[in-house]
């Protein structure tokens, strides 16, 4: 997720709130596309993701501020017939977590206590919804189905990446990593528990198959110029029952507002449609 650097003129590292795209604004507007081949950029675009500020990272390619696409993702072709240009509804990828009911274990590796506490809060928020998909902490000393760990990256181009994650595998397993930014410009010297938990909620949303709610126009939550993330590939599959109007409080908006954003009514419709 990204956070938009609302105080860029005052604090270079102001908190970025990517309504849950795990960035504020793109902390990497100056990213170097030269490290990604034209073929790979074409694959990213064909899957329905923006190539703007795309960059190579460990395990794949970071796109849209907080989404990691793996080589397996890029190689997969979608057979889903109902991919649409989004309005502002809830959208999912073609891959979802399978074999429900299912408990997903989550570990926290080498992060300060507030991140661990935030994981517990995030788990509580998901489990309170009575889904067929539940979360629990992994046993001490083991790596969970999803491992939460840190990276340190400062602001760039008016945005900072708050966290990143990816989408479920074709086999139906959740994406196995959530990276959280430990740079002081992301959450400050004393991170707020509710804020960190909200970003984790967003990132885990990607891990189980949610795309950004403002898929059709990331400027809705991130500001700047209009950017439609496109169609095809894992694309954006409309979740029935969710609105076709702008949804200002969704936990899956691309950029954070810097506060505590949890599930709104439409988010709950989407969660229960997919995983009840």
From TrEMBL:
Keywords: Signal. InterPro entries: MetalloPept_cat_dom_sf, Peptidase_M10/M27/M57. Pfam families: Peptidase_M57. Residues 1-21 form the signal peptide. GO terms for molecular function: metallopeptidase activity. This is Protease. It comes from Pedobacter lusitanus.
